[in-house]
Specification:
Layout: H1 2-11, E1 24-33, E2 36-47, E3 53-59, E4 69-70, E5 72-75, E6 83-84, E7 90-91, E8 123-124, E9 134-137, E10 150-154, E11 172-177
Antiparallel strand pairs: 1-2, 1-11, 2-3, 3-9, 4-8, 5-10, 6-7, 10-11
Amino acid sequence: MPRILLASIAATPLLVAAPTLAATVHTTLQLATPEGPGAEVGSVMIMDSPQGARIMLDLHGLPPGQRGFHGFHVHENGSCATSKGPDGKLVPAGAAGAHFDPAGTGRHMGPEGQGHLGDLPRVEVAANGTARENLTAPRIKDVSALKGKALMLHVGGDNYTDTPPLGGGGARLACGVLE
């Protein structure tokens, strides 16, 4: 009987769970200028994690911003080209469109609120113009949904409300398309 049991075990295929590969998207950010994308200011990589999207920044050549912070968002379109605004004036990186809001909330509530899914944590820029930090966007559970969207760093800070409009982030400072 032991021989049959051993033969039976030996004939059973061994099932091994393959490691799950986390989805990853990345981009190079370039300054948003009236002429189109300008000088490169670094790179961003976003990957899936159990806590939500993990965002790794390696940026340089940036102004410090409001109290050192800049608004940071995923925008709906995969373009950093200049476009005309409603007043007919050129908007640097305007072709990126509005904040990524697949649920149609129409609200700016920050990375932990129930508004735009594209609301990311603020980016803190050091006095020397660098931002090398890891951030987490807890509501983004599948970063592959961000592929082909624009990633935008804004001139001003972000208070995660709709007053002033879009939390006061203001003009578009740097942009990149997530691949």
